[in-house]
Every structure is written in structure tokens, then in C-alpha cells.
Amino acid sequence: MNCVDVAIIGAGLAGVAAASDLATAGKSVLLIDKSRGIGGRMATRRHAGTRIDHGAQFFTARSERFAAFVNGLVGSGIVQVWSHGFPILVDGLVCARADGHPRYACLAGMSELAKQLLPDTVECVLGTQVTSVIRLADPIRDGTRYEILAGESTVCLARDVVLNMPPMQLVAVAGDLLTDSEREQLLAIEMEPCWALGGCLAEDIPLTTVALECQHPVLGWISRNHTRRGAASEPLSIMVHASGAWSASHLEDDPLDVRNAIEAAMREIGMPLHWDSDPFIHRWRYAKPVAGLGEEVFRLSTSPGVYGVGDWCIGGRVEGAVCSGWSAAQQLL
Ligand SMILES: Cc1cc2nc3c(=O)[nH]c(=O)nc-3n(C[C@H](O)[C@H](O)[C@H](O)COP(=O)(O)OP(=O)(O)OC[C@H]3O[C@@H](n4cnc5c(N)ncnc54)[C@H](O)[C@@H]3O)c2cc1C
Description:
Layout (H helix, E strand, L loop, with lengths): L2 E7 L3 H12 L4 E4 L11 E4 L2 E4 L10 H12 L3 E5 L4 E3 L2 E3 L7 E4 L5 H6 L5 E3 L6 E4 L10 E5 L2 E12 L2 H8 L5 H8 L3 E10 L10 E5 L3 E5 L13 E6 L1 H6 L5 H14 L11 E10 L8 E2 L6 E4 L8 H15 L1
Parallel strand pairs: 1-2, 1-12, 2-9, 6-14, 12-19
Antiparallel strand pairs: 3-4, 5-8, 6-7, 10-11, 11-12, 13-16, 13-17, 14-15, 15-16, 18-19
Helix pairs in contact: 1-8
Bound molecules: flavin-adenine dinucleotide.
The site of flavin-adenine dinucleotide has 36 residues, from helix 1, helix 4, strand 13, strand 17 and helix 8.
């Protein structure tokens, strides 16, 4: 039986950041994710000979430690300053809006950030969906007190647990460890969804900037994805996100209908999509928190050593997720 100091469930940025600090401090860590890769919503898909980022599009680095980490990656050519702010589409007009603050992107694809955060020494179990975390009736002598389960099978036993997943999933997995008021508090954190349409283009859209934020009934964001890749030889590619409100009201629609609606909206704003090959569509059920918890981590009051982490704790963004993971590690250490 695999018995570790800390089980980390979810290898999104927060889970990876926590794993990194805990492993560096000498703790035995097991990182578990239901997907086949790490990075969570910092996601990149291989598509038609290129890499398209269908989750997070850029990140900021305002806090001291994250800025130092990002600057190191800029120095080694893994991260670049992608923009200093994006124009916004309002009432059909593109309005300039750069604020000079750097927005960063990974040249090889956004999922690279998680890979850069994670030391090779951390053991990962991928493709495994944790269904419950149970407190052992009799803790083992070395302090091991939780059992992590995937269905009927035990994934590992652990002294401490970090839960890196959206709040409603946390309630489903670790409901027995929560008090009634904690459960209510978590279920009140709303995460808005996002439909994402991406693919390669035969012809670029008529937009001179790398991306465009949209105030539009259907559209939320348009990204000329190839501009993040850096090389002139990269195929033209695009990522379009529907707005949170539109995605919420069309969450259960047929993906083909969603594609048609986004394409029609792009035509309507004068940026028709001329696909080079079939595009892909992805639904993020829990894309971004509407408002966060206001704390870097969520500490379970009656379950010692169990922490909830993620962008929904503070910040609602890439940087917030990383800082949440680092903060949980610091508290566990
Ligand atoms: C479409 C979209 C656009 C975005 N744009 C931006 C942007 O431009 N800038 C920005 O800063 N942020 C952006 N974000 C937000 C950013 O992606 C997130 O803030 C950040 O990636 C969250 O990281 P996390 O670690 O909190 O969670 P996640 O990335 O969600 O990680 C959670 C992980 O847990 C795993 N998991 C969940 N349940 C289980 C389980 N039961 N068992 C095992 N594994 C489990 C999941 O597979 C996932 O890998 C965007 C997000 C989306 C979806």
C-alpha cells in the first residue's frame, strides 16, 4: 500500500505548486489527477500539427515570488511577454485599451507552466478519478489518517491531503470531512462555464492585435493562438471563447449548434472563420470563479491537515492558483 506524507488530488497549477514545495522540503508526495496530463485548465491541445491553448490564454505576475519564477522562465525562453493589454469590442467597435502591464504566455503551449513548476521527483498517478477521501477510524502510528479512494480501490493512504478541484467537486469528494457550514460556503462559490472553439485557419481574421476581449451577447474572447507560439512558420490558429453568460444558458446544447452560433457571431462582427481543417469544441463546465473565497486556501476546520486549494480561493486566475498551492504547502510545512 502506497503510504505518503501528502496526497494531492488534482494536478492543476495549485496542486502542482503545492507538490513542488512539499517535495522540495523532503515530504513524500503523491499527485493524482483524473486527466492524462497535468495542468488542468492551463490546457493545450495538439491539433492539426500545432498546439492550441483552449483554457487559460495568458497570465499576469504581480506577486513577488510568482514574478521571480516567471522572470526566470522568460530568461530561459520558455515564457514570453505576449501583450501589454488587449483591446475590447464594445457595440461592434474595437476600442484600444493597453495598460502597459505585461501579460505572459508559454511559447510551447500554456500547459508548459505546470511542467516547469513540477520537480521530476514527484510521483504522479494520472487517469485516476478520486471519488472519496475518508478519515481512518484508527490512524496509523506514523500519523497516517486519510484513505484516498477511486471507486472501490485505495489509491493511497496519507497523513495530509490537498484537494485541488472546483468547490462543488471538492464537496462531492470530501463531503464527509466538511462541516455543514463549510459545505454551504463551498457550494455558494459560483464557477461560470465557457464553451471554447478552436482550430487552424486558412486565412487570418482581420485583427491586428494578438487577442480581443469582447462585450458581446455570444462572444467573450478571441485569441490569434499562433501569435503565442513565436515562430513565423506556425500554422494560423484561433481560439474563441463564448461569454460566461451565453455559455451558462447554452451549457447542454449540442456542440455543433454551439459551433454554429459562435461562427455566426464571428461573421456578424466582421471576422468570419475560414477553417483550414475541422475545428474542435470544448466545454469547460467550471471555467472561472465569479467571486472567490477571499483566502489563499480553504482549511477544513474539523479535519486536520486537509486543505482545499485553487483559483476559487483567491484571485480566480493562473497566478491566484499557483499562490494558493504554495500557501497550502507553507501551512502544511
Ligand atoms: C476557458 C478559460 C480561460 C481562462 N483564461 C484565463 C486567462 O486568460 N488568464 C488567467 O489567469 N486565468 C485564466 N483562466 C483560469 C485559469 O485557467 C485557472 O485559474 C487555473 O488554471 C486554475 O488552476 P487550479 O489549479 O485552481 O484548477 P484546475 O486547473 O481546474 O485543476 C484541477 C485539477 O483537478 C483535477 N481533478 C478534479 N477532480 C478530480 C478528482 N476527483 N480526481 C482527480 N483529479 C481531479 C482536474 O482534472 C484538474 O487537472 C481560464 C480558464 C478557462 C477554463
